[in-house]
Amino acid sequence: RKEVEQDPGPFNVPEGATVAFNCTYSNSASQSFFWYRQDCRKEPKLLMSVYSSGNEDGRFTAQLNRASQYISLLIRDSKLSDSATYLCVVILNTGGFKTIFGAGTRLFVKA
Amino acid sequence: EAGVVQSPRYKIIEKKQPVAFWCNPISGHNTLYWYRQNLGQGPELLIRYENEEAVDDSQLPKDRFSAERLKGVDSTLKIQPAELGDSAVYLCASSPQGTTLYEQYFGPGTRLTVT
Questions:
Q1: Cβ contact (<8 Å) for A31 and B101?
Q2: Which of A38, A99, A101 should we substitute to test contact with B (largest number of B Cβ atoms within 10 Å)?
Q3: What is the pLDDT of residue B99?
Q4: Structure confidence at residue A19 (pLDDT)
Q5: Interface test with chain A among B49, B55, B103, by most A beta carbons within 10 Å
Q6: A-B C-beta contacts closer than 8 Å
Q7: What is the secondary structure of B49-112 as a DSSP string?
Q8: Which of B6-33 are b and which e, b meaning 16 or more Cβ less than 10 Å from the residue's Cβ?
């Protein structure tokens, strides 16, 4: 089992739709969580951190469920420019910090 | 402020040849990472430096891969000899010292093709 698993894609949604991605992690030593966005043939860039209490940034909402070991990303009112791959990132603390990326979920927003 | 700089951007080599990638992190960032990203996958950490010390190289295939960060600033990742399966994008990232828990800034990557 992979340490970080994401919803298989791609997701194809119309503009204005709400879309949600899930990411599960297997190691209870996971300490910090992030969502990164990666455009085609570009480098990953931080979208948002994920806090225990949940957090929102405009149309984006991230949530963490430590008991069930998953995080989620909700995008409301999807825009064409939201089309990208969304990477779930987990930082493990096992005596040292280790960064683990999920395989990513690809989103296509259509006009 | 300049971002993470990587070179070359593209490299095509024949198998069994050596190849080297260079990375210059954001000024003041003491933590440097090398990742490999295969098509359709997320980045996989190869090595992490805190200043000039490699603090996590558990995922680095040491039989053919080596890395150095001699002065704690820029870094070189080398593959010798390259194999067909090494074709991937090699990404360098940096973050401020002691903030492994926070944002990593990525360079544009080097796209390696081994033929």
A1: yes
A2: A99
A3: 55
A4: 97
A5: B103
A6: 46
A7: EETTEEEE-TTS-TTTEEEE-TTSS-EEEEESS--GGG-EEEEEEEE-TT-TTS--EE---EEE
A8: beeeebebeeeeebebebbbbeebbbbb
The tally of CA atoms less than 13 A away on the side-chain side of residue B114 is 18
Distance CA A57, CA A60 (A): 5
CA A16 to chain B, closest CA, distance in angstroms equals 26
Whether A95 contacts chain B with CB within 8 A: no
A47 bridge partner residues: none
Least confident of A10-14, A50-54, A72-76: A50-54
Pairing of strands A105-110, A11-14: parallel
Which residues of B fall within a CB distance of 8 Å from A101?
Answer: 35, 42-44
A27 touches chain B (CB under 8 A): no
**Between residues B114 and A30, the one the model is more confident about:** B114
Q: How confident is the model at residue B1 (pLDDT cuts 50, 70, 90)?
A: low
